[in-house]
Amino acid sequence: ITGAPRVVEGLVVIGNAGADLGARGYVSAYDAETGELAWRTYTVPGNPAKGFESPAMEKAAKTWTGEWWKFGGGGAVYHSMTYDPKYDRVYLGTGNGFPWNQKIRSPGGGDNLYLASIVALDAKTGKRVWHYQTNPGVTWDFNNAMDIGLADLEIDGQKKSVILHAPKNGFYYVIDREDGKLLSTGKFAKVNWADKIDMKTGRPDINPEALYPDGKPFVLFPFPNGAHGVQAMAHSPKTGLTYIPVMEGGRVHIDPQNMKEWSPKLGMFVNTGLGAPPPDIKTDPAVSKLVAWDPVKQEKAWEVPEPNTFNGGVLATGGNLVFQGLNSGEIVAFAADSGKKLWSFDAQNGILSAPISYRVDGKQYVTVIASFRSSFANKPNWDYRQQKRRVLTFALGGKETLPKAEPYTLDVVDDPGFVVDPAKAAIGAGIYGTSCVICHGGGMIAGGAAPDLRMSPVPLDPDAFRSIVHDGALMGQGMGKFDVLTDEELEGLRHYIRQRARETKAQQ
Q1: pLDDT tens per residue across span 12-54
Q2: Count of H helices and E strands in the chain?
Q3: Active-site residue, 205 included
Q4: What's the pTM value of the predicted model, to 2 decimals?
Q5: Which structural domain range is residue 495 located in?
Q6: Is residue 415 domain-resident?
């Protein structure tokens, strides 16, 4: 069991991560007093030969083909769960399939219930009440692990208790909480996998090219990080607007070679079931913005462009303010009704978490965590060993300041005689992204779990590099053994490490 728990009427409800790693998704409820398991609900079916845990799983199995259970299936509930006291229900946001590529996971197609869905469960029993699937037969890394907000809106002259949901796929959904019926939807970001959502069926009108058929590549928008990731959005009952930290980027999707022989590789951070992008297809750098969205009109009220991608979650207050931390190191306050920038503070570190607001002795405070361990940081020279991680609290009349930031140093190891081959480095980038990134950091910017490879002399020596990476010479110190990598892939990794080291050196 992994993830953030929810406490619901004497039960602790918690999901699990791992949809990218071959897991079968489920949610468990434990008695808060005793720790006894009260109920467990799976989100995807297992092996039919072993029977089904519930009628819902038996129904779901009819929407899968092949031997999906050998891959786990996916559908992890790793982030979003919301309790609805009006109906005594828990709403789950389920994850993507494993692998992403449906042609491998479920080769005969099908909706693959209950992937990429919002599933309503009876809070006392865990039994399914209804579901709404945003991406039937999902074949990308789209999921519904984003915020599931509850609100009362007036729609077509009627007051409705609704779910507000802006998942990875770039569509904003307003869903009736009573029966799961889709009430309205609109695009809040750049989307090319579907033109629209059919309001009669609730199903997307999918662009056939987005399924990357017959070995043809497709640059998919949004990219796997999503138009909206797990960073918190916020909704203000006063303005009627939802504030979404939006990202717009594309990624090449293409089938792997020898697709019928594909199997998960041990040690892979993500087994996508995708092939390497053709070298002649380039994607533009992703951009981000804060978007204020009107869920009744299903249109944008305003937007503010922001630096890089992966900016922080959002807080909306009753005082017509929207607070957000940025990966550039600022925390910013905007006017909630117009998007006008009203205030900012240099936190000296990127911010990913959402601010919180609270009152003590009649005084309001806003608190945020300043800490960033990702390559998405706007300032690429932030380093886990030197950055100052802080909890920052603000209030009207506050006069405290931060000490002056110390200059950053990074001792990049290089050999001027090493000639980087871009084609080899491209192979290495793919291997790094699936095998190395979880420990050594995105973009090779280490987050603290393992050494920063840009500062390591080992990749300069092919024999030493092979001994450690392929043969497992440092397994005793926690470095894994990747003997599934070919000589070409090992050499590609060396070239990618040198490439990133030189790019970093050029920035200093």
Answers
A1: 999 988 877 788 999 999 999 999 999 999 999 999 999 999 9
A2: 6, 29
A3: no
A4: 0.91
A5: 422-507
A6: no
